[in-house]
Amino acid sequence: MRVRQLTAAAIALLLAAGLGGCSDDPAPAHTAEPAPASADPTATTGDVRPADRNDVENGGTLRWAMDGLPPTLNVYQSDANADSALLAHALYPSLFRPDEHGRLVPDPDYLAGAESTPPGQQPQVVTYRFNPHAVWSDGTHLSAADLTAQQAALSGLDPAYRSAHPAGYDAIESITEGAGPYEVKVTFRRPYAEWRALFGPLYPAAETSTAAAFNRALTGGGHLTAGPYTFSRYDAKDRRITMVSNQLWWGDLPKTDRIDFVVTPPEQRLDALDQDLLDVAPLTVAVDRAVPVAPTASPSAGTGPAAPPAPPAAADAGAPEAAALALRRAESLPGITVHRAAAASLTELTVNAARGPLSDSTVRRALARAVDRRRIAEAVLGPLGLPGAPLGSHLLTGDQEGYRDNSAAVGPAEAGELLDEAGWKRPNGGTRVKDGKELALTLLVPAGSATAKRTADALTASLAESGIAVKTQAAPAETFVKDHLAAGDYDLALFSWPAGPSPAGEQRAAYAKPRPDASGTPDPGTNYGRSGTEEIDRLFDRAAAELDPAARLDLLQEADVRIWQLGHSVPLYQRPELVGVRTGVAGVGAWGFGWPRFQDVGWSR
Question: How far apart are CA 420 and CA 438, in angstroms?
Answer without folding.
Answer: 13
